């Protein structure tokens, strides 16, 4: 594979992973926007999405070879696992909010954060108890088709993920900007007490935010498994951190920012693979070994130089 | 000299006898159980044999005997103190039941299970049941809580004398009864011929002991009584009527007074409604604990039999968790900055000694050091490692200063993830995942350090913990410590009061990282190997769980939290797995059932599930932790009350029930 082909492939992979980061980042940014909490468990909800899909596909539909499966069964499997991972994760998100965050809404800042870490740990080890400590691989969920035009190599899964991610993001944007409940969400995010005085049921709106955010993360989990065919109990933690970085990069609380931030992080991570090992500017073991470090370095740099993110606005801390 | 004390402690003729009976019996049972049922007497007898028969001589046996002498001495003083300090408000039976559950039960459980941690874990279960059962019974009987402290009365010279005499009497009677029971038991042994070779020696010892113990009781009881009286003076200073024209106010007393005030602990008032929990009694416990820790390696074989080395190894490992928890407590507990990458500083500390104290130094720089001198470098490098870690703490802290708490958590998390990656990728220097091996142990005069003997490490970590504890206490009570707490409670208010936030935050980071560096260097030296794969985010979370469980900002709480988390993590969960795999154990059927449903199940695998649930439950029901610091508890409760005012309305206006939500005052 020549350099150009490799680069284009990396860009495509970066865009696909980036769009999955975006889907997860949306949940972070929505929750942060509305209750100013970093929902540490959000990445693990995503992981739960992959887990639900994995369990359905292997234990219920007994998938071994997608191309040998009748089309009807295949479609049923995909629709059922997509809906199941979305709905289960959405409900899980609401449950977590109800159990672990709502009782702490007026506690000191540290309390909900530590509670969120606790939820994250609990989810991870639940998954570990179910699928074990090592990564699990599934057979391809759909028959893989490759398209190739000159240096461009595309899989059908790439296209599906990109299209669905865009659809979900547009849908969410519409939900937040153009519906009644979206207006309520923005109102609560702006001023919870004033919103309550205007007749907004704050608890319901916050629960709805968790429902939507976790549902999108669950859908992201389904498409991630469709695209990469593997998952593990701690995938959500890492991916959650990248997604959070994406949310911060775009300006936390800003939906468009989270989407663009996700794509940017995906591209940067992917393109790090091009960084050579050879001197003079080489990294030991090449850029691949430094992908994660690069993301965290970006996170730290943004927070240092522009904590509001690229699209965020400066807000004074409330007294 | 007239002093003020609560009137109820005034000696009343009928009272003294009742108090004596109360405390003598309360202490007689546990001390007898320890001496006769468990290992107390065995230690003393072994020490006697060691003195008089050169063939049996060993320093550690002598030390065990010395420990027993210290133990009895401290107990005698404590009994005297308690008799003098008691206000007689806790009922006699009540006290006996409490003493039974908090002393006899753990002693027996540890003795039966022959395992410190399993015994303590079982005791904790018993204590929880006892605590709630007691509350239920109290509710059922609807007995009123203890009355408030009564009005103050004059404590004159005469009464001080009476109190001291009472203390002497208490300790004397306790010693007398104790030695008589012991005498009876031993005579029984003697005449049934249990003491083979040294029977004459033991006869002399038994008689001597029976005579000497009451005398010692009289003397030490006096000391205990005087301590109680001195604490009474202090109490007066804290809440008296200001009439102390005849007492010169010493600096020492003023300092004590301000410390009391700062901690706002009303229980410092002695005589106390619960003398077992008073500051004076606490000093006795601390002495007892210090003696136990110092002599532990020598008495361990008597307590638990073979396998001392492995147990000490566990305790030496638990020790660096304590240091890490204390360090993290500064950052999270005192200063309120959530640090999720604390493991990074530990890694830095570990690698500092690993790279200087192993052959890697020669590989990298070509420097050769005499292997006799090399281990000695550990001591300066301990400080250097801590300083390097502290420097990194500042470097990391500096850019995050402008950030709010939760962003800070993420940045530190990122940093904690980067450091192991960097260590792994720079394998030219650090040897990556293979790690560095052959790291030198420290050296010290006359001590044989060896990876397989744990005793030196046990004492080393004890000394390090003592230093770190002292530093922590001093930091907490210092100007900077108060600045940290002020910052934690309200940054804006703290800044308005003239606290330099930048400097204060950086100092918190530096101090936390410093202690982590110490722990890291110790870890590298003890394990003699470090590898990049040994450190991860989940370690940082474990440290956080220790601090949160024990109580954010509470030094004793954090120590206990670290020990509990370590015990659950390293000792209890693998033990449960071993039991689960053992077909003869009780939990085997349950375990196999779980395995049928979840094939990958093991208790060690769900460690984080347990800690995660503990974190959530603690945050909701007891955010101040198991042993909270007074200040933190107040802060949290205040937040609760204020929270009631600013919550949103549950019912929207116009909906039924809305009117009832609005309170006009």
Most residues in contact: chain pair: A-B, 65 and 67 residues
Computed Rg of chain B = 28 Å
Please state the oligomeric state of the protein chains shown.
Answer: heterodimer
CATH architecture of chain A: Orthogonal Bundle
Instruction: List the uncertain runs of chain B.
Output: 1-12, 148-154, 234-249, 257-272, 639-665
Structure notes:
The complex is a heterodimer of chains A (319) and B (665). Chain A has helices at 3-35, 42-60, 71-101, 110-131, 156-178, 180-190, 192-197, 202-228, 235-250, 255-271, 291-305; strands at 136-137, 146-149, 152-155, 230-231. With 319 residues, chain A is mainly α. Chain A has a single domain (3-130, 151-305), classed as ABC transporter involved in vitamin B12 uptake, BtuC. In chain A, helix 2 packs across helix 9. The longest helix of chain A is centred in the first third of the chain and has 33 residues, at 3-35. Chain A is globular and about 60 Å long. The N and C termini of chain A lie far apart (58 Å). Chain B is mainly α and 665 residues long. The two termini of chain B are 51 Å apart. Chain B is globular and about 75 Å long. A two-stranded antiparallel ribbon of chain B has the order 1-2. The chains are: A mainly alpha (319), B mainly alpha (665).
Task: Summarize the structure in short.
Chain A is mainly alpha-helical. Chain A has helices at residues 3-35, 42-60, 71-101, 110-131, 156-178, 180-190, 192-197, 202-228, 235-250, 255-271, 291-305, and strands at 136-137, 146-149, 152-155, 230-231.
Fold blueprint:
The complex is a heterodimer of chains A (319) and B (665).
Chain A (H helix, E strand, L loop, with lengths): L2 H33 L6 H19 L10 H31 L8 H22 L4 E2 L8 E4 L2 E4 H23 L1 H11 L1 H6 L4 H27 L1 E2 L3 H16 L4 H17 L19 H15 L14
Antiparallel strand pairs in A: 1-4, 2-3
Helix pairs in contact in A: 1-5, 1-8, 1-9, 1-10, 2-3, 2-4, 2-8, 2-9, 3-8, 5-6, 5-8, 6-8, 9-10, 9-11, 10-11
Chain B lengths: L2 E4 L6 H25 L2 H13 L6 H27 L6 H22 L2 H26 L10 E4 L1 H35 L7 H41 L11 H13 L15 H26 L3 H27 L8 H14 L3 H6 L12 H23 L4 H21 L1 H4 L24 H23 L1 H11 L1 H6 L4 H27 L9 H14 L4 H26 L7 H10 L9 H15 L8 H17 L11 H4 L4
Antiparallel strand pairs in B: 1-2
């Amino acid at each position: 594979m020549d350099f150009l082909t490799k680069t284009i492939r990396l860009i495509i992979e970066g865009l696909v992973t980036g769009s999955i980061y975006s889907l997860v980042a949306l949940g972070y940014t929505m929750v942060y926007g509305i209750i100013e909490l970093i929902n540490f468990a959000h990445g693990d909800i995503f992981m739960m999405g992959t887990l639900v899909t994995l369990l359905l596909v292997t234990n219920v539909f007994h998938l071994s070879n997608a191309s040998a499966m009748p089309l009807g069964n295949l479609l049923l499997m995909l629709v059922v696992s997509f809906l199941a991972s979305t709905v289960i994760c959405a409900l899980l998100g609401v449950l977590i909010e109800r159990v672990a965050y709502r009782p702490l809404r007026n506690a000191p800042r540290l309390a909900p954060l530590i509670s969120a870490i606790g939820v994250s740990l609990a989810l991870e080890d639940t998954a570990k108890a179910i699928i074990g400590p090592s990564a699990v691989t599934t057979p391809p969920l759909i028959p893989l088709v490759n398209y190739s035009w000159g240096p461009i190599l595309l899989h059908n899964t790439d296209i599906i993920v990109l299209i669905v991610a865009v659809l979900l993001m547009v849908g969410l944007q519409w939900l937040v900007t153009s519906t009644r409940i979206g207006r309520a969400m923005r109102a609560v995010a702006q001023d919870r007490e004033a919103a309550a005085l205007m007749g907004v049921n704050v608890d319901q709106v916050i629960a709805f935010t968790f429902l939507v955010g976790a549902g999108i993360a669950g859908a992201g989990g389904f498409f991630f498994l469709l695209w990469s065919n593997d998952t593990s109990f701690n995938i959500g933690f890492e991916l959650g951190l990248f997604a959070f970085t994406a949310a911060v990069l775009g300006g936390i609380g800003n939906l468009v920012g989270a989407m663009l931030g996700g794509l940017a992080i995906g591209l940067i991570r992917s393109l790090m693979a091009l960084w050579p090992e050879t001197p003079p500017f080489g990294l030991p073991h090449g850029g691949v070994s430094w992908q994660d470090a690069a993301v965290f370095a970006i996170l730290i740099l943004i927070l240092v130089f522009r904590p509001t993110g690229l699209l965020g606005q400066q807000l004074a801390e409330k007294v | 000299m007239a002093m003020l004390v609560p009137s109820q402690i005034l000696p009343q003729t009928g009272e003294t006898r009742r108090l004596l009976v109360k405390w003598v019996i309360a202490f007689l049972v546990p001390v007898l159980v320890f001496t006769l049922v468990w290992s107390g007497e065995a230690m003393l007898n072994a020490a006697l044999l060691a003195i008089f028969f050169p063939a049996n001589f060993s320093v550690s046996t002598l030390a065990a005997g010395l420990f027993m002498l210290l133990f009895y001495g401290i107990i005698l003083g404590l009994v005297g103190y308690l008799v003098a300090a008691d206000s007689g408000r806790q009922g006699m039976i009540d006290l006996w039941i409490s003493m039974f559950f908090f002393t006899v039960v753990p002693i027996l459980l540890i003795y039966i299970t022959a395992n410190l941690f399993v015994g303590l874990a079982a005791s904790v279960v018993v204590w929880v049941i006892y605590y709630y059962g007691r509350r239920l019974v109290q509710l059922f009987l609807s007995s009123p809580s203890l009355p408030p402290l009564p009005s103050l009365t004059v404590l004159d010279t005469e009464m001080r004398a009476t109190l001291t005499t009472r203390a002497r009497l208490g300790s004397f009677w306790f010693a007398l009864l104790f030695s008589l029971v012991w005498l009876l038991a031993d005579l029984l042994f003697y005449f049934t011929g249990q003491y083979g070779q040294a029977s004459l020696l033991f006869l002399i010892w038994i008689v001597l002991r029976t005579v000497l113990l009451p005398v010692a009781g009289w003397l030490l009881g006096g000391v205990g009584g005087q301590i109680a009286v001195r604490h009474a003076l202090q109490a007066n200073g804290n809440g008296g009527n200001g009439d102390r024209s005849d007492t010169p106010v010493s600096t020492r007393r003023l300092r004590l007074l301000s410390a009391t005030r700062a901690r706002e602990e009303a229980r410092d008032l002695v005589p106390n409604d619960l003398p077992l929990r008073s500051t004076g009694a606490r000093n006795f416990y601390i002495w007892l604990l210090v003696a136990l820790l110092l002599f532990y390696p020598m008495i361990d074989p008597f307590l638990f039999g073979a396998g001392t080395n492995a147990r000490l190894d566990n305790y030496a490992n638990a020790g660096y968790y304590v240091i890490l928890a204390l360090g993290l407590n500064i950052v999270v507990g005192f200063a309120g900055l959530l640090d999720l990458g604390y493991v990074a500083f530990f890694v830095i500390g570990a690698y500092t000694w690993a790279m200087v104290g192993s052959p890697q130094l020669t590989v990298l720089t070509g420097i050769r050091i005499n292997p006799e001198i090399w281990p000695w470098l550990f001591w300066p490098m301990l400080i250097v490692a801590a300083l390097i870690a502290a420097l990194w703490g500042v470097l990391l802290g500096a850019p995050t200063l402008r950030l709010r708490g939760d962003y800070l958590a993420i940045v530190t998390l990122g940093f904690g993830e980067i450091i192991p990656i960097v260590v792994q990728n720079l394998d030219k220097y650090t040897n990556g995942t293979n790690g560095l091996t052959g790291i030198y142990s420290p050296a010290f005069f006359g001590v044989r350090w060896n990876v397989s003997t744990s005793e030196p490490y046990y004492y080393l970590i004890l000394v390090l913990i003592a230093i770190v504890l002292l530093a922590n206490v001093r930091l907490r009570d210092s100007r900077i410590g108060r600045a940290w707490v002020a910052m934690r409670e309200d940054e804006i208010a703290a800044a308005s009061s003239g606290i330099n936030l930048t400097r204060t935050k950086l100092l918190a980071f530096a101090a936390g990282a410093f202690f982590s560096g110490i722990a890291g260097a110790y870890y590298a030296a003890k394990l003699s190997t470090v590898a990049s794969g040994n450190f991860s985010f989940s370690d940082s979370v474990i440290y956080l769980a220790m601090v949160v469980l024990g109580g954010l900002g509470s030094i004793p709480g954090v120590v206990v939290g670290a020990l509990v988390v370590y015990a659950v993590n390293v000792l209890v969960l693998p033990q449960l797995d071993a039991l689960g795999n053992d077909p003869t154990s009780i939990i085997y059927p349950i375990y196999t059932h779980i395995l049928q449903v979840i094939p990958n199940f093991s208790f060690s695998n769900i460690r984080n599930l347990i800690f995660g649930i503990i974190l959530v439950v603690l945050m909701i029901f007891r955010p101040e932790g198991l042993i909270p610091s007074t200040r933190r508890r107040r802060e949290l409760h205040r937040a609760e009350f204020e929270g009631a005012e600013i919550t949103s309305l549950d019912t929207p206006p116009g909906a039924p029930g809305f009117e009832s939500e609005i309170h006009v005052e």
